[in-house]
Amino acid sequence: MSAERIDIGNIRADPVRPLNGYELKLYMEHLLNLSRQCRRSRFGNEVKDIFLREYVARVDLQSTLVLGYFNGALLLGVAEVRSMQTKWCADAEVAFSVEQSHRTKGIGTALMRCALDHAARIGIAQLHLICDGQNRAMQRVAEMVEAEVRFEESDCMCCVRVPPARHASARVAA
To answer: Whole-angstrom Cα distance, residue 135 to residue 155?
Structure first.
């Protein structure tokens, strides 16, 4: 599936959009449906269902943006942009999860592009990403947006600068 807009007759729908508070249940179901390896890739270690339920219950949409990649009503991937402070500030963490059967289809790239656009509107200047050092797909997504990449032990640490043209006109007071 293309990461661009999908044309459905006269209706145009973006496959990536923010989830609202009522839709966080979809996020929780998405995380619960992830394979053991996908959960490990997303959270950096083994996580149980109870952890995922509690994690989603703590999402504060005042300082966290959850972007979903949809195919119709199916949520296939998520980018979570979380401020490094309790309110939006210049730095945020970004994390991705894509269902195993839908990986390597451009979903991570589409989510990253949308995360950058939303980060600019919020006033974020840098997105920080940590992924497994063996996760070449996520590293390629980071490289596509010219992230600074470094390796520490078994992790890949990426810093993605939101391009000035994106965030200069959309600063939000912190």
So the answer is: 9
